[in-house]
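Now read this:
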Amino acid sequence: MPNILKNISLKPYNTFGLDTSARLFVEVKSLEELQEVVRSSKFKINDVLVLGGGSNILLTQDMDGLVVKNSIQGKEIVSENKEEIVIKVGAGTNWHEFVMYCVEKGYGGVENLSLIPGTVGAAPMQNIGAYGVEIKDVFVQLEALHRFSNKMEIFDNATCEFGYRESIFKHSHKDKYIIVNVTFRLSKRPKLNLDYGAIRDVLAEKEITEPTIKDVSNAVIEIRQSKLPDPKKIGNSGSFFKNPVISKEALLSIRKDYPEIPTYPIDDNSVKVPAGWLIEQAGWKGKTFGSIGVHKKQALVLVNYGAGKGADIKKLSEDIQASIVEKFGVALQAEVNII
């Protein structure tokens, strides 16, 4: 049984760098340790928060319960042929480190997801995505421990009910399972996805005409570093809001005043609008309020400059949401899990 600690600061365990505390804290490094914790009385009688990389949460208060840090590591090749490889990865593995492993080995499919913070186990929970690629595109299955039965269950692509930054684990299965490992199918002869964002522009600047997955990964890293603050230097959780999907009718109404509004087609009746653009048009970009604010280079990112409080960041997010509804009639949803 791993040692359960008392009154531990969670500042090192969340990328906002918020100095909240956990009354009880335990780190698990294997399925066996996790099952021991789940069997314990402290797990059964307390509210439980499971942490991966802490990159998609906003802690607004101290945790008067048990925080379980999932640090289950490891990589296992499930199957392999000339065309593809299937790899099972521990949920506590750092996501970017896994992507770099794939890039170095020449396994294609996740290179567009370079430099996304967090862990492998958190990736399918919200179907992380960037530059035209989502987890569901390479996902095979995951294994998760049921919090109440303490038994392992398998979820395939269909069962996870992936949507835009969505999965079953954010809805009907929220707080019912702890993801233990995730299995991915990657290509040894990858088809590169270069059509989203500025990837082609970066490659052209470097005069790369026949890019490899490493070239694509490097381009994505360069783009992200140019726009997004490093959580080790400025506390943040990346994109705070989802890009809203609106009807074409609503788009026509907005275009009367903002003909330049950028959009991405979804289907015949709806389009996706960049939340960062909406927030910038509403005048929030670069604004600071004491120790918190909206990042000066990317309006989609809320930041903690050092001594910020989670409750204040939550209030800022709510003020932004209200202003976007008032100005555009569009409701923004938080991508970050507010606790």
Summary: The domain at 235-338 is CATH 3.90.78.10 (Uridine Diphospho-n-acetylenolpyruvylglucosamine Reductase; domain 1). The first strand starts at residue 5 and ends at 9.
